[in-house]
Specification:
The protein has 11 helices and no strands. By secondary structure, it is mainly alpha-helical. The protein is globular, with a radius of gyration of 18 Å.
Length: about 200
């Protein structure tokens, strides 16, 4: 395969990843959220959280963020199946979908993406643990935000997210997120209560 073919496939991959901006997180639809976040919305904040957790846990923040960015990239092809559907649907592994998505891409790009997905799915590296905790902590924070907006059905997402956190940093942040209003930071900033630089 020539460079032109690889570049064409890479451009196609970037358009495919753009679907994550349009696909909604279906669990929130089940909970009754009228206009839920997109998969890309979730992945962005999860990547930020992954880097924060990694810094707190002594892992590599950049690597944890990278793993988190690609953790749901397969949903361009699988969509975001709600947990209710999982007992009835057989789906390909994320590694298999990623292998199909990256077929024909420049070797360095394909290796970077498949390596990130494989490490995330392997659950063993400190960065993967932080990225997986970030996925759950982001869900918990989003549930709190939806609850503050009047949705009363978010408790199961909060509880299941709490149960799955592995790092102490994630558990500590989750407890604080449950005690903190989502706009408390804004009031502090507007009142000049942020510590001086």
């Amino acid at each position: 395969m020539g460079v032109a073919d690889e570049t064409e496939r890479l451009a196609g991959f970037l358009y495919e990843i753009g679907l994550l901006k349009r696909y909604r997180r279906t669990g929130w639809l089940v909970a009754g959220v009228g206009d839920p976040e997109s998969i890309a919305d979730h992945s962005l904040r999860a990547a930020v959280i992954a880097s924060v957790l990694a810094a707190l846990e002594g892992a590599d923040p950049a690597r944890a963020a990278l793993l988190s960015l690609f953790h749901d990239s397969q949903e361009t092809r699988l969509t975001d199946l709600p947990h209710l559907a999982r007992p009835y649907v057989t789906k390909a592994s994320n590694e298999r979908v990623t292998a199909h998505q990256t077929r024909g891409l420049p070797e360095a790009v394909a290796a970077m993406i498949t390596g990130a997905v494989s490490e995330y799915e392997g659950k063993a590296s400190p960065e993967a643990v932080c990225a997986r905790d970030a996925d759950k902590l982001e869900c918990l924070i989003q549930a709190v935000e939806y609850r503050e907006q009047g949705n009363r059905n978010t408790r199961p997402w909060i509880d299941s997210s709490l149960e799955q956190l592995r790092t102490e940093s994630a558990r500590r942040l989750a407890r604080q997120a449950l005690e903190t209003g989502s706009l408390d930071w804004l009031a502090r900033a507007m009142n000049g209560d942020d510590p001086a630089p």
